[in-house]
Batch of 2 targets.
Target 1
Amino acid sequence: MTDPSLFQIRGLTVTSGVLPLLQSVNLDIPAGGVFGFIGPSGAGKSTLLKSLNRLLELTPGLSITGEVKFKASPIYAPAVDPNALRARIGMLFQQPVIFPASILANVLFGVKRLGILPRRELHDAAERALREAALWDEVKDRLKGSALNLSIGQQQRLCLARTLACQPDVLLMDEPTSALDNRSTAAIEDLVLELQSRQPIVLVTHNLPQASRLCGRLALLCAGRLVMFGPTAEVLDAPALEQCLTPSSC
Ligand SMILES: Nc1ncnc2c1ncn2[C@@H]1O[C@H](COP(=O)(O)OP(=O)(O)O)[C@@H](O)[C@H]1O
Ligand SMILES: [Mg+2]
């Protein structure tokens, strides 16, 4: 029988020397909607998220054991090409990662590197991705202009467009609005709600009202351990959440 989970995480343990960052995490992330990771700063949310597309192994000095399956295939198997995997599992970070190049070059960076589209289709792909990221109308007349001149909120949507241009199967987002003002945060939240009907999203947020607005299910992490997971309302109401968020309790 095919497993309906998007990600199946089993016994995932990450250590730096003797310091545990994640301790034997077992979690199934379903194949639809927005799934959130919440927990206090330092709980291991980013570490867990980056283990889902093998970005974590680019950090030197970490040992990663256990298993992560994506659509029933083990992603740490020797035959898996991490770059191809990272294109299927797109990621958006806390701070927009912008190259000192044009808006067009930024949006096409991933697709060009992967070589997945013929040259003649690149411009259409850029337009499609910029429209999906609700940025097209603001940049269509200055595609050759520097991306560094965009506001930080626009830069974050440009990063989203760059990821969407690769047509990922899922989007990982690590506190994607924490550097943004209220207006840009609302724009990204609207996009999350819109995009989730096409591809699932795994979102790290320290903002509980945002988790409540966006996520169907949540996992609560505390000191490298998965404390609980379930429907958003249940996790947000659980006594374990308050205990976790009280300093020095977890
Ligand atoms: N490369 C690293 N080497 C050693 N410790 C790390 C490294 N990256 C993160 N940590 C530590 O691991 C813990 C979890 O980090 P992180 O996953 O970034 O937490 P969160 O995203 O929940 O704030 C923190 O205590 C952090 O200091
Ligand atoms: Mg983090």
Target 2
Amino acid sequence: MEGIKSLENKKIPDFEDVVAFHGHACPGLAFGFRASLAALAELGERSEDEELVALVENRSCAVDAIQVVTGCTLGKGNLILPDYGKQVYTFLKRPSGQGVRIVVKWVSPQETAAEQETWKRFSDGDRSPEVMRIIKARKGEKMQEILKADQQELFTISHITAALPEMAQIYPSLICSQCGEKVMEPKTCQRGEKILCIPCAEKD
Ligand SMILES: [Zn+2]
Ligand SMILES: [Zn+2]
């Protein structure tokens, strides 16, 4: 497990590690990777526990790069996804709330009329081998452009101080009276004598 070992040595994961986690290489992943590197350059080490919090304003491939590179993950609760459909990545340090807001400003170079026509056919549902070959090539080129671009071309970065979300908490488990499965206390519903989990309460 070479990857795991390198994390223990606090090496910053590289783009290959990110692709291994995500499953494919794509422009969105490249944005997430570059934003993560920019954040770590400004704020220091990746997050082993919850010392760093990421607020990601979209649900794109970029999210996976951020989890691998910065250590801000859904599982640890220090990755928050207010989905505004914006390419904006905010990283805050605990306990100070100081951090950076990274806004993607990069626009890909103007495409040829033929490339624009191909994108239109693709978004209209054309998945012919000819269209797929051109789309794949364009995505690959775009990804390389993002990986190689100067940071100033990609992002506007501002230093901010903001309110931190609450730390992840551990709650006791109760047993749902209906299904008999364990459920964390704040997610239970009281129905008379019964304590129910949310799915059982919705069926009740
Ligand atoms: Zn992707
Ligand atoms: Zn239940």
